[in-house]
Structure formats: structure tokens, C-alpha cells
Write a structure and sequence with these properties.
By secondary structure, this protein is an all-alpha fold. Helix content is 74%, strand content 0%.
Length: 115
């Protein structure tokens, strides 16, 4: 029992590993979506009239703030393609938050098996 308690507190149980795997996967895929979104937004919005995306960095900043806050202080995209990417990014951000929240809730709800 002492060993099991120690494993639980150190995060070495199977449930902890599953939660870590889910979180690492969500973070890795979100970083990939961030890079793809940056590339797409720069390609679609750069040089367009009234577009706030003037460089790769501003594209990265805009996409990252969309993913982190589902909002941005920068103006909305001006092209149809940029707006489609924006909608996808918002859906992705909400989905990731819901998935991570559900993973934590499931982890916390599990009761340890009694022997």
C-alpha cells in the first residue's frame, strides 16, 4: 500500500501516464496547427488591403492569440480564405480545451482499485 501511495504521489501510475500522453499529444498537435495556421494566414493575408498580417511574425502572433484566447486584439482576416482558417482555429481551440478538461475530469473521477 505504501508503494502504491508513493507511485500515485510521484505520478507513476498508469492513469497518470495516460493523462500525460493525452496532454503531450494535445500540445504537440496544437503546435503543429499553430505553424500550419501561421503559414496559411501569412500566405492568404499578407499584402492584402487592410490586413493586419504584415509579416510571418504578425501571422504567428495572430494565430497563437486565436488559439490561446479564441479572440485577438488584431482585426479579423480580410480574405475569405483567412476567415475560413480563423473559423477552423476557433473550433480547434474550443475542442482542445474541452478535450483537456474532459481528460482531467476523467482522471480525477477514477477511483483507485481496492485490493
Amino acid at each position: 500500500m505504501v508503494l502504491e501511495t508513493r507511485r500515485t504521489f510521484s505520478g507513476a501510475t498508469e492513469e497518470h501516464w495516460k493523462l500525460r500522453k493525452r496532454l503531450v499529444t494535445a500540445i504537440a498537435v496544437t503546435l503543429f496547427v499553430d505553424l500550419i495556421g501561421t503559414t496559411l494566414m501569412y500566405a492568404l493575408e499578407h499584402g492584402k488591403h487592410n490586413s493586419a498580417i504584415t509579416s510571418v511574425f504578425t501571422g504567428f502572433f495572430w494565430v497563437t492569440t486565436q488559439l490561446l484566447t479564441v479572440s485577438s486584439q488584431m482585426p479579423n482576416p480580410v480574405t475569405t480564405g483567412g476567415r475560413v482558417v480563423d473559423i477552423f482555429l476557433q473550433i480547434w481551440a474550443i475542442t482542445v480545451v474541452a478535450t483537456v478538461t474532459g481528460s482531467f475530469a476523467s482522471f480525477l473521477q477514477k477511483k483507485p482499485e481496492t485490493q
